[in-house]
Amino acid sequence: MIASPLLEFIAREHPAFVHLxxxxxAALPLAALASFFxxxxxxxxxxxxxxxxxxxxxxxxxxxxGLLWGRQINLIPPSGFLPVVASEKQVLQKMLQxxxxxAAAGFVIGGLCVFLLWRAWRQLEAAPAxxxxxGRRFFERGAGVPALLMGLLWLGTxxxxxKLGGIMVFGNEATxxxxxxxxxxxxxxxxxDLPVRALDYASLEPAExxxxxxxxxxxxxxxxxxxxxxxxxxxAGKPLRPGAYAVMATFTDEKGKxxxxxxxxxxxxxxxxGSTAFIFYWARVPESLRKExxxxxxxxxxxxxxxxxxxxxxxxxxxxx
Length: 321
Ligand code: HEC
Fold this sequence. Notes:
Elements: H1 5-12, H2 14-17, H3 19-34, H4 41-72, H5 91-126, H6 145-170, H7 173-188, H8 196-199, E1 205-206, E2 212-214, E3 220-226, H9 231-235, E4 245-254, E5 257-270, E6 276-282, E7 299-302, H10 309-315
Antiparallel strand pairs: 1-3, 2-3, 3-4, 4-5, 5-6, 6-7
Helix pairs in contact: 1-4, 3-4, 3-6, 4-5, 5-6
Bound molecules: heme C.
Heme C (HEC) is lined by residues 214, 216-217, 222, 224, 246-248, 266-268, 278, 280, 308, 310-311, 313-315, 320-321.
């Protein structure tokens, strides 16, 4: 990451740095147009050249600060130059990509424009005063029509890039909608960080009056809890209906009795669409048992994690066995 306060400043001030080159490029076509009038054509062409030169040189700071900023806020990978667009929903990344393409295209066009203006200015300087217009075709007068068109194109690409930049900073309908959707998805996924419902098992209906031993789940002591919507089906040995779930809390064995040390939590749920989902949560795996879970000290697996495939092996046969 960026450590130096100077680089930090350059990155953060990107929205400010871009205005100097953009303003100069906006004035450039005016100077180029003025150069078509015979009077002062040399001065106005020179003005157009200097405007373009300062804009072009100044834009390197803007480009550099934009790159730093993009990397600093993790939109651009640390050693990359473009954001990675992984899905259609990444509105901001897609917009940033276009923003960068337009800015870079403007830089290339700008370079060409600077060159054309420099050449026109040099020619005017070299020509005797009375030859500056006489004998020249219209499109060759002053700055020349090609330079004027390049200047307009330059303004167009940077104007477009700037418009996207403004949207990315201040937001528009598309970016706000994408942010709201990401928020809602996170909010609806109550268990993104912790299996909240499994941890709250004691609020469910106990399926058994007392703990018993479960050979199928590591020979631990277990107690099964089921949602009110599923307890009758469970007791009757029927599959759980959509929305219902069962949690199995486990304990270590101490001399043939349920111990006090908690083991993993197992959860099995029938989703709204009828499919079965599993959760395996072991907040703290004792050192001696880590080999059971690939050496991890804490485990939280949720469907469709492939590590839960063993659960399916026994459970997909239906019923609650
Ligand atoms: C060796 C077969 C087997 C494996 C593997 C297995 N289970 Fe089970 N599971 C059972 C059986 C049998 C029961 C019935 C209660 C018992 O015997 O403990 C059960 C019960 C449960 C219950 C209580 C609700 C019910 O359906 O009875 C949950 C929750 C559960 N298992 C989750 C899991 C999860 C999550 C995994 C994977 C990490 C898993 N099980 C792996 C066989 C298995």
